[in-house]
Amino acid sequence: MGNLKNLLKMIHIKIAQVFFIITIVYFSAGLSGCHFSSNKAEVPLETWDSLTVSASAYNSVKSQTGAGNPKITAWGDTLKPGIKVIAVSRDLIKKGLDYNTPVRINGLEGVYFVKDKMHHRWKNKIDIYMGEDVKKARKWGRKKIKIYYLVQNDSLPVIQ
Hints:
Layout: H1 2-28, E1 46-58, H2 62-65, E2 85-88, H3 90-94, E3 102-105, E4 111-117, E5 125-129, H4 134-140, E6 143-152
């Protein structure tokens, strides 16, 4: 009886393997009969949008961050020197610069991430995190710059 069970189990496994191989070949050969193409141009799932903003720099020191731990952002992330983080004014959050949005900054290398938000009084402004190097932040100063931020597009096509 035990041998018969093992034989049936092996046959079942072989049938499943053959079915799997046939399915892979069928779909990879394009024989499924499903065609999702159209004459319309494909809309990318993400694009980089741009804004001109006022930019300053900040450090994780008590004199600049107000009450609480200067290494903890408004969203609760821990700041460490060397990470590429920005704080944004709350009006920019409404424009799409929400938590964890990737941002490229003209004049700076790499991609920064929105991890902090600023007091309500600031408008159209970013603060670039520069660790504990206060001299570097002061040297940056305040300037108008162009930033590029990643926008997630709706992945559902518009039906007309």
